[in-house]
């Protein structure tokens, strides 16, 4: 029988836990690869609670349950999750483990799926629970799967080769680099679990996760340069087999866990940031010596080859032309009050889809009108969808997946009639000044993103305001739109990667913002490439950013009196470059609109 209500689903889960002798269960948003975005088959938290955000978790005890989200989802979780069934808990003020320690009685047995949680989370929870006489139990089979009757099956879309002309390096070359690292560290093998790392290492892409072109699979890479790919047989085509060659042994994904026992006596490196606890447990049970070390694909994946850098430029140029058509459409149609957030999403997708190289969006478009724009991670759906009000701010954060690059851009625009308020123009101009400050930064080689973050905030701070998210994240090449290890964020914050040194070839976002709850939000986002600064007379190597995103900024929201000559020069130079790149792709009214937007300030 299919359970339609979340109350019925919660009740069924409690009965299943009781049958297994468990007093509680932890439900994360996760899959076996600790992916940021997960396939429909792994959307257990959404099925149980109704929560549709990308970060959160729940705990179910027999007598109460709780939802855990951070400040990004304070409004959304209350709209989507029934407060009669779940308490709302704020992270980092508390956490699932802390809450369990306080609310589960002594002697309680709390279940968790070791194939959905990181090993360090499990170890810390176990230590905390022990003080309270609570036992953490790794379940044999997820209890939600036992009661989710119509759970979708994992995707069987074929995995496909990613051409070396886009990657700029062969898979054999990448595997050789990993093998050299293994030998230098004295390791026999490493287990590669992150889906984008597998995709990068094998020059392979797929369609198993919405917005991210990866295939559900694992790799065990060996010190002799060979590798084993664990993937569902139905996903393997003759083209993929030929592409991988004799040095990659293709095995059934179902054999992955038992195959870890084949590494008995071997020294195996596993990254605790990307590998679930179940992998550590299986290796240790099989007699391998497990060493915790970084995924060897993460850093070289972040440093783009010349081919990937050029691919990004080409993808951004195509994407920019689509955005011009879209922004012109918004300017002409939204003031009527008859365009809603979802209609705008569909229209942008339509314009991007005019390019045959466009394969998917790179994330769910943030189409945010009025007060919704004040929610940095707002996700529009049928329930939240509203018309874009006339005389308001509209924010659109979106991206495309192209064969040669992944894009991510935010533009904030004024929807007429009338003029924005002085406060709106002040805040937008301060965001713009921070964006320019970071864009023009020159810094020593291996400077961390954390050291640059204040540049983007300084003009907001002078007005006594700030924003709560990071300033920049890494971006992949026809891969994940959020890619580590680098990021630009406040040092010591909750985001990993803040201390990672920036290197030539890395791509990051530059996206300061400002948000006035319930009223409006502003964000300006371009992607940038870390390049040699070529400073004359410099004592050592210095770096700077090359701007990759070229789309007009809304001049209606700019208070020119707040801009310095240097900043006005940046604006004019930027828009001259926008015109140079986009004009050849446009004609008629679209070209005329571009010309107007690119006039000197």
Automatic annotation (TrEMBL):
Keywords: Aminopeptidase, Hydrolase, Metal-binding, Protease. Residues 9-141 form the Creatinase N-terminal domain. Pfam families: Creatinase_N, Creatinase_N_2, Peptidase_M24, Peptidase_M24_C. GO terms for molecular function: aminopeptidase activity. The keyword Repressor does not apply. Residues 312-531 form the Peptidase M24 domain. Residues 541-601 form the Peptidase M24 C-terminal domain. Belongs to the peptidase M24B family. This is Xaa-Pro aminopeptidase.
